[in-house]
Amino acid sequence: MVLLLVTFFSLSLRAQPHVDTLRMALPEAEKMFLDSNLQLLAQRYNIDANKALVMQARLWPNPNFSVGHTLYSGALHKWLPTGANDETTFGLSQTILLAGKRNKQIQIAAANVKLTEYQFFDLLRTLKYTLRTDFYHIYYLKESSRVYAAEIKALQQVSEAFSQQEGKGYISEKEVIRIKAQLYSFQSEYSDLINQINDVESELRLIVRVRPSFFIDPVIDSAALSKLDPNAYPLTTLIDSAYKNRTDLQIAQTNTKINDLQYRYQKSLAVPDLSLSLGYDEAGSFLTGYYGVGASIDLPVFNRNQGNIKSAKLMTASTEATQRSVQSTVEENVSTALQKAYAQQRLSQTVDPKFFNDFSRLTQEVLNNYQKRNISILDFLDFYDSYKQNTLQLNSVQFNRISAFEDINYYTGTNFFN
Question: Is residue 180 part of a domain?
Fold first, then answer.
């Protein structure tokens, strides 16, 4: 029997996936994110790709070279005749872009580089905000899970003790059912909480690019977090920083600039380009060995690029409206985030810092008193439920406070609170 048990235990261990716990502080997580995030890497490639388009826009149009020769002479009844009876022509032409088309193309390409750079920093800002909020969210969720684990363990001890005394008349069946019902309720809530932790951890692992076999255990500096104060910076400073550093606003401004450049470029396309040519005709002209120069240009009679010009103008108006919309939200975002931080700060200051220690100490005392039958089952279960609810609420208060400071960082585009 012992041999069978050992064999079963070893096989069960092999069947379980290998899981490691990765303890890390926030600076370590941010460094991993900057070094290995694939979304940032892809956006960096976009920047380099648009820089290559600037190089392409700087290039001049290629010259055109043509050559012609007699294929068949009817007089000589000869294919590809040579000598005095053949005809050979050469031509060389070059297109000259007028109305500053080349410079406008270069300006559009350069503006697109700036746009992709701002998109990179906006992606960085968004992913960093997600990383930091997920990091703190996991920490406080795990703090709540420890309460569930401790209470479930205590209720399991009571339930096992009752099971051993079942049928002896010491414990009523109703009391046993109440204990087991509370235990099953806590286990169900604990399972839901673990699933929530796993979902947030999955998102965080993707951001910092950690293997799925790792569980992240956040390490925070509680003393530093407790010193965060929304009064540290006035609203005007936060708003000024937002206008200067909000990448979504810079993207909107750059889109307006690009569309304005596109409008000017479309207007320049209404001006035809000039083509200069140099030609040689061996014997097909009134002169033998004819050399000539020429110039050609389209006459803008029917197509003056009217539709594209109108479309570009309307697109410019559209992006200007979008830019004004983004600008109008900046101040509102920052003001709302600051008011939220004030409210969460006031709420967290009402919490007695001794609360957790007192409750943790009382938990074991209540369990001992219940086992000694000094308190009723109603008092026992009511205390455990109250302890759980208050702990969850306090962890939620702490997380919401930190989240409010992260909102300010996100909406201002600056790490005022770290």
Answer: no
